[in-house]
């Protein structure tokens, strides 16, 4: 959550308004225990991926994307695997 807060507040990053809104929404949901890190990562991935294209030199964003990818796959498999075996 701290990294998410840092990315949102980093003025050097070129983030779209949509990306900022999604980060803020997921941060609030995580803070209020309305979602977990896996699903938040799944929802944030497309926006942060696009932000990384615009901010290729950002070490903070690059490192955070590695974390997001790890958790995103957990959410993906949690959604897909139960359906596959019915």
Structure description:
Helices cover 78% and strands 0% of the residues. Helix 2 (17-31) packs antiparallel against helix 3 (37-54) and helix 3 (37-54) crosses helix 4. It has one domain. The protein starts with a helix and ends with a helix. The protein is globular. It has four helices and no strands.
| Largest β-sheet summary | none
Task: Report Rg.
Answer: 13 Å
Whole-number mean pLDDT: 88
Indicate the structural class.
Answer: mainly alpha
Q: Order of SSEs, N→C?
A: HHHH
**Low-pLDDT segments, ≥5 res:** none
Number of individual domains: 1
Helix content: over 70%
Percent in strands: under 5%
Number of DSSP strand runs? 0
Q: Sum up the overall morphology in one term.
A: globular
Task: State the separation between the terminal residues, measured CA to CA.
Answer: 35 Å
Q: How many distinct helices?
A: 4
Tags for this entry?
single chain, 86 residues, mainly alpha, globular
Summed up, what is this model?
With 86 residues, the protein is an all-alpha fold. It has 4 helices and no strands. The chain has one domain (2-84).
